[in-house]
Amino acid sequence: MSEEVMAVPAAGPAATPKHVTGLIGSQGSAATRAMREQARRRRDAEAKLQQHLLQTRSRQSPG
Predict the structure, then answer these.
(1) What are phi and psi of 37, to 5 degrees?
(2) Angle formed at CA 12 by CA 4 and CA 44, multiple of 5 degrees
(3) Contact at 8 Å (CB) between 46 and 2?
(4) Whose CA is closest to 48, among 6, 8, 13?
(5) How crowded is residue 47: how many other Cβ atoms within 10 Å of its Cβ?
(6) What pLDDT, on a 0 to 100 scale, did the predictor assign at position 1?
(7) Alpha-carbon span 17 to 40, nearest angstrom
(8) What three-state secondary structure class fits 2?
């Protein structure tokens, strides 16, 4: 996994979310929530896989 995928989001005024008032709910539609949940699960799975790969490599390295 590349470093840019694991990078922490930027801080400061550019990183602050824009607040929309009116008809749009703060969490978005059901489809948006489902996509966010799927993305979160994918990130969690990728992090777990990365950790497993690093552990496997450390066991295989000559020592």
Answers:
(1) -65, -45
(2) 40
(3) no
(4) 6
(5) 13
(6) 46
(7) 18
(8) coil
Q: What is the pTM (predicted TM-score) of this model? A: 0.51
* Single-letter residue type at 13: P
- Domains of the chain, by residue range, sit at 15-60
Count of Cβ atoms closer than 10 Å to residue 50 Cβ: 13
1-60: pLDDT as tens digits: 444 445 555 566 566 666 555 555 566 899 999 999 999 999 999 999 999 999 999 998
CA distance 1 to 48: 11
Alpha-carbon separation of residue 51 from 47, 57, 59 (angstroms): 6, 10, 12
